[in-house]
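Forum: Protein Structure Q&A
Topic: Joint prediction for protein chains with partners

I've read a bunch of threads here and the consensus seems to be that you should model interacting components together rather than docking separate models afterwards. I'd like to see that in practice. Below is the full input, 692 residues plus whatever partners are listed. Could one of the regulars post the assembled result?
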Amino acid sequence: MRGTETLTTQRVLVTGAAGFLGSHLCDALLGEGHNVVGVDNFSTGRPVNLDHLGKDSRFTLIEQDICTPFDAGAVDYIFNFASPASPADYLRLGPETLDVGSAGTKNTLELARKYRAGFLHASTSECYGDPDVHPQPESYWGHVNPIGPRSVYDEAKRFSEAIITAYHRYYDVDTHMVRIFNTYGPRLQPSDGRVISNLMMQAIRGEDLTIYGDGRQTRSFCYVSDLIAGILLLSRCEEHSPVNIGNPEEWTIAECAQAVLEVTGSRSKIRHEPLPQDDPTRRRPDITKARALLGWEPKIALRQGLALSLDYFRSQGNS
Amino acid sequence: MLIISPGEKLLNDSSPVLVTGGAGFIGSNFILDWLERDGSPILNLDKLTYAGNLQNLVSVEGKPAYSFEQGDICDRPLVDALLRRHQPRAIVHFAAESHVDRSLVGPEAFVQTNIFGTFCLLEAARAYLAELPAEERAGFRFLHVSTDEVYGTLGPGDAAFEETTAYAPNSPYAASKAASDHLVRSYVHSYGFPAITSNCSNNYGPYQFPEKLLPLMIANAAAGKRLPVYGDGRQIRDWLYVGDHCSALRLILERGKIGETYNIGGHNEQANLDTVHLLCSLLDEMLPGSPHVPHSNLISFVTDRPGHDRRYAINAGKIERELGWKPAETFSSGLRRTVKWYLEHQDWVQQVTSGAYRQWIDTNYAGRGEARR
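Posted by a regular:
Agreed with the consensus. Here's the joint model:
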């Protein structure tokens, strides 16, 4: 997917294809003219996210758990996006989350090695844990409790980064890693416990908006199209160490709830609940590296992105 | 969207599919499609006669899933060695002399390649299978790609060719393909050899050697040369877009029944003259500034080819019913794609007609076959 090659049709493998980000990535790759092979075991991915591709003969969907070695044939590029990703899911699927980050990543890397395919891994800002540096540049090593409840996700993703780096170093696999910060948009699971989906669904249903703690903890929120654009740029550059992609605009959860109320026109009230253990108090990407390396910049502001997602969340509210 | 459910084999294994004649028109389209859609390894054995052109495959050159061997299917020691070395799980046999006009002038090459070559391949494959473990033998397929010309010609009111239509080949080309079909059939019955035969109608699409009707007409029309139409131009051909042919072959390989034959056609019966007119109107549209608009002024009738079959039409009901295949292109959508491709790939036409690509082959492949052994 580098240089002039971007113009030729490639066979691209996307693991976690039925997930929120995986499905948007499939759309973007098909849109560029590539043939896409999607892999998902539907543990958290939803087939409905791919329903609109039913008529596209360039898309193949394989129901497969990547923790079992698999081979979908020769591919030119692999995007490894399989993993439970919302707290609700990875807390429910703890051991599975550790499996997919370790065995799953290794099996997928083996394909990249076998077919000399490019490899881009969806890593996460959770690698920084509950950071004591703010905002977080890629050079920050993180502050993670290895035995806390969230470690099933954080440490799985940190292990993935380690094995990917080893495959690059030892086997010369062309690897890339994106550390994804909070992302939202259509197809975000409505009940996954993430801030935007929680608040949007509560507002649409007219329920109280839940804020954990005092609401002064901050988050940054990136609209999905901005994220996918950044990922495609990263897949085509020569950078092998992790790159943050996210929207650096910082919102307190309380401000975010306010924006949700405005965009939805809801009259819901705010309800405070105790902060869960290990919930990071501040997280915001330092995107200096992505700006310099990729010339990338998020374009969609929070209120705009919420408005773009409104129809989707409404459709989920009715179902 | 193709959905592969759990338990279904993603890949039989890493053993390749051997494609003979993969540098030709249909073979190279098959390989390009295969590597994009299936991705499991392909070994291409091609003699590189005038109709074989490795430039068709330049985009897959160097991919780990693709390898090429220059050689003749009549060369039994070579075929034996290739089978033993690469352990293919299937053979898709395209290699053939295929131009009817050439078969009228020099039928010997047709008998040699199409009949003896197929025989040689069958014998080599039979010996190879005997050495395979039972499980791999059970999965092996030999797909023999043939033509609807074996059925002869049709009158205006006759029903289209079916798999059960009696063979009545009219040209040395058709006779040589008919003979090879019979050989394949006999291997199924005599030796339980796992072969399947497909008979397709007239293919068209990208990478077709410019001696065939459509590319010739496109090239001539674009250059303002006359468009030679045989006889009255009322000969009827049933056109099949090459990409649709490839999807049918993949399906047959995956799900076809051993010993069966499947007709493949695009439901596009067209008189040659109508085809040329349609082509001219597409060119008028795509080359609006050309001094040769309307291109139909370039049409000129020439003496008919001896023994020219009047009508071919194929009934593809069996493969649609039994394997669920359907062509994706209509004649007008496929023709539009084809004209567009040729107009955008004038350099390719230039190279294959000038013989410049032969030089390219010599410089690119000198000594390569040896080095890999």
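Chain A touches chain B through 28 residues (CB under 8 Å).
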